[in-house]
């Protein structure tokens, strides 16, 4: 029988950075290549991507990577992977177009992108692979079933069950799921983020009924925000603007480009007569909807700029109605609070949709139970979520009759191995390290760099400069002491003077004892100055001694 191994390079016990690997004998299949955004203590880090070491070492065995939809947590790390290994990409038509444009911007050439139907059957690397349509906030979303002689390995992707869904590009086909379940599923991988929410997510993912009364009452301009990747919600907002005969201005160029792609693919078209172009937009317009889109913190920062009259298009007016249609999510709370404060200071009114009332398009408990019912897997692996989410998802499976030996809560890098339709091992672990991206992918950030940034942000920095004779090592210039973020110089002249004295004494002592070495003296001075500053100020700033040897 086929030897099957399943593991994650990201996405377990964390929010984002999804990447899952299924091995069937020697063939490797990758699912998703996402990023996650950093914690507040990871200063200066833009985002985090998975560790690709295992994939690079085994690149000749990789048959392809499947991207189920174009959200950052599923696709944004793909350019960084393809720069290191050129492997085939399999995805839906809309996501393929977006990937193509992204790779072009990132300078990735010769990528092989295969456009797949949402419901398809094909053989890749000698293995039968089947896709099935799933409903999510992004069109063309699909799940994946990899066939082995032990049974299918099924990955649902991100989804909800919505019986009222009418748009073809968002539809889910439950018959496809049931058919796969009847043929036999060895293992099911299901996302966990909303596992603790009761009932079905639908219809709580829809916002029309909540914001329509606000549209009715508004007499002035409407500013409404939504995360750019929630295309289903953005279409809801456009349809409301259409219903109330309001023109609409798309603030973000990327959103305007996205809507062009949707129109080209005949998925959705915004009537041209209701669109206000960037060229024709006037901040004095009244009967208009301004749609603000972006990702995470950037969306709320854009709104803060508008409130502070620092945006190039829109300046806030007290007559504006502001609607936050995308609930505040983890990691954006501080920026959202700043935004609200700025608007209230300007005398504005703001309507924020509650995250408990409006849900993102992820499966709640009954959605997950339906997947277990339709696929009837022998083993269940909760994925995508923090540990508490994985745990709750696992508990749902126990309520559906699964024993603890049939449910696997894995860590990133932990390998589940199956032989003869039985789990044989979870003992193997791959050593993984997060890749922290700081502006450019070749500037990966280490723990030392992050620690330095933390010190700079809390205790500041002190630079102590001295010029000495190249020949005699006698101090001929300085010391000059500069600080940032540590003390107010006028109130601490005695500290500055003593720091300079410490520096001079370290140099003089080293010269007198005939042990002078520039690097060693600077290290000695750094240690003594740090201890002195700790005693006097209670802080541990970054101390940077500089000794310039001048040949005169």
Please describe what this structure looks like.
The chain is α/β, with parallel strands linked by helices and 552 residues long. Helices cover 31% and strands 24% of the residues. The chain has 15 helices and 24 strands. It has helices at 53-57, 72-75, 78-82, 93-105, 174-183, 208-217, 231-243, 253-264, 297-307, 333-345, 365-375, 387-399, 447-458, 493-512, 518-537, and strands at residues 4-10, 19-24, 27-31, 47-49, 62-67, 89-91, 113-115, 120-124, 127-133, 142-148, 151-155, 185-191, 222-227, 247-250, 288-294, 321-324, 349-352, 379-383, 416-419, 422-425, 435-437, 461-469, 475-484, 542-550. The strands form five sheets. Strands 7-6-5-3-2-1-19-20 form an eight-stranded mixed beta sheet. The protein starts with a strand and ends with a strand.
Please estimate the helix content: 25-40%
Residue ranges: pLDDT <50 for 5 or more in a row?
440-450
Most strands sheet: 8 strands, mixed
- Neighbour order of strands in the largest sheet: 7-6-5-3-2-1-19-20
Instruction: Compute the separation of the termini in Å.
Output: 81 Å
Judged by helices, strands and strand pairing, the structural class is alpha/beta
Helix segment count? 15
Shape: globular
Number of strands: 24
Entry keywords:
single chain; 552 residues; alpha/beta; 6-stranded mixed β-sheet; 15 helices; 31% helix; 24% strand; globular
Helix and strand arrangement:
Elements: E1 4-10, E2 19-24, E3 27-31, E4 47-49, H1 53-57, E5 62-67, H2 72-75, H3 78-82, E6 89-91, H4 93-105, E7 113-115, E8 120-124, E9 127-133, E10 142-148, E11 151-155, H5 174-183, E12 185-191, H6 208-217, E13 222-227, H7 231-243, E14 247-250, H8 253-264, E15 288-294, H9 297-307, E16 321-324, H10 333-345, E17 349-352, H11 365-375, E18 379-383, H12 387-399, E19 416-419, E20 422-425, E21 435-437, H13 447-458, E22 461-469, E23 475-484, H14 493-512, H15 518-537, E24 542-550
Parallel strand pairs: 3-5, 5-6, 6-7, 11-12, 12-18, 13-15, 13-16, 14-15, 16-17, 22-24
Antiparallel strand pairs: 1-2, 1-19, 2-3, 4-21, 8-9, 9-10, 10-11, 19-20, 22-23
Helix pairs in contact: 9-10, 14-15
